[in-house]
Structures are given as C-alpha cells and as structure tokens.
Amino acid sequence: MGIGTRTEIRKMMKKGLVSVNGEIIKDPAHKINPEESSIMVAGEPVIYKQFIYLMLNKPGGYLSATTDEYEKTVLDLLTPEHQIFAPFPVGRLDKDTEGLLLLTNDGKLGHHLTSPRRHVPKTYYALIKGTVDTEDQSAFAEGVVLDDGYHTLPAQLTILNAGVRSEIELTIYEGKYHQVKRMFEVRGKEVIYLKRIKMGPLALDESLAPGEYRELTPEELARLKEDIPQ
C-alpha cells in the first residue's frame, strides 16, 4: 500500500510499530488475510485495496501511456500513493486531446471496456473549423469511409452550434486511430479542439480541472461493471 519498502517495513516491525488484530508482530513471515485482518502501522490503520479506479481529466500535452522515454505520460499526474498501484490508462486519448480517461490496475475491467467486440460508446465534445450541418449528421449516422478505406460504425452527431466554427458532440462505438479527426476530415472539416466527456456509463466530473483526478464512487464503479461476466 505504499507505506515503505520491504527493508523499511522490516525495520518498523523490529521497532514494534506493526500490529495485526491488536497484536504486535515482529516476524515479517507472519501470515495474514488482508481482507479480514486489522493492520496498524505506527498507530495508523492500513486499508488494503487490490484494485484502484481513477477518473482523470486529461490535459493536453500528455501521452495516454504508462511510460515514455521522451514525453510526459498521464501517470506523471498521479501522486505516489496512487502510482504504487501501477495503474494503466483504459484506452487512449491523443496527446492533444483532453477529457475523461479511466486509470486502473484492473485488467478484467480494462479489457471489457476496450474490447472491439463490446462497442462501448464514447462521447466527445469538439470545436470544428467549418459549418457542421444535417448532411454531416446523416453521413455519420450511416458511417463514413476513412482515408484507409475503413467504414466506421454509425455514429450520433449532435450540433450544438453551427457556424464558421461549430460546436458538436459525437458518440462513436469504436476507437480507431485519430478516428474523430479523420471522420471530420472526410467531410472536409477540421477538428480544432477535442475533449472526451463520456465513456460507457461514466461521465466526466466537470469539477475536475485539467490534470486533476479522483477515485470513482462506488456507484460509478458498479455501473461500469454491470454487464461484466463474473
């Protein structure tokens, strides 16, 4: 749980700072049940968690990756107490794309949300250079053919404000490389700004400033896990 290295914990135990169910334990080989045992270190309770689930409002300029030799990654935004769980981003957002990104070390949930067979909906807010109209809505509703010949699944395009610069929301059911930008390029328009605001049942907490994050609530986690086979 990030309290110390094995060497540091052994030293704490020798000093009598570690107790299990009220009993001072000095033997590092002592067996415990982390789900049931009451563990204290220097008078503070240790709450065991196997998995961690974080909602991040990803800022631009960060890679959706765990490590990179040259660029900043979303894990650089986490405090050490959360980095210790070695979470990974569920899916990816482009470097310059902002918004909702789930970080977890739960591989089963991550696979469920990113599996191409699941078609988990993802909704984006975007600022578009060019007037978005009903013809674009109809084209997206049928799916468009990208520059590499791939025919996208039908998508729902909502026009919030049409003009020289249009504001839209777009829901897609797959995650091809630069998909939203490429879909608009097919229509002769350019994405100026892109932000993911929803993934499946999980909506971005708008109180989170770019770069901020929080743990999911029990209700949010339950909704994400609703249709995962047990």
Automatic annotation (TrEMBL):
Its EC number is 5.4.99.-. Residues 53-185 form the Pseudouridine synthase RsuA/RluA-like domain. GO terms for cellular component: cytosol. Coiled coil: none annotated. It holds the Pfam family PseudoU_synth_2. Gene3D superfamilies: Alpha-L RNA-binding motif, Pseudouridine synthase I, catalytic domain, N-terminal subdomain, RNA-binding S4 domain. InterPro entries: PsdUridine_s_RsuA/RluB/E/F_cat, PsdUridine_synth_cat_dom_sf, PsdUridine_synth_RsuA/RluA, PsdUridine_synth_RsuA/RluB/E/F, PsdUridine_synth_RsuA/RluB_CS, RsuA_PseudoU_synthase, S4_RNA-bd, S4_RNA-bd_sf. It comes from the Bacteria. Residues 4-35 form the RNA-binding S4 domain. Keywords: Isomerase, RNA-binding. GO terms for biological process: enzyme-directed rRNA pseudouridine synthesis. This is Pseudouridine synthase. It comes from Thermanaerosceptrum fracticalcis. The lineage of its organism: Bacteria, Bacillati, Bacillota, Clostridia, Eubacteriales.
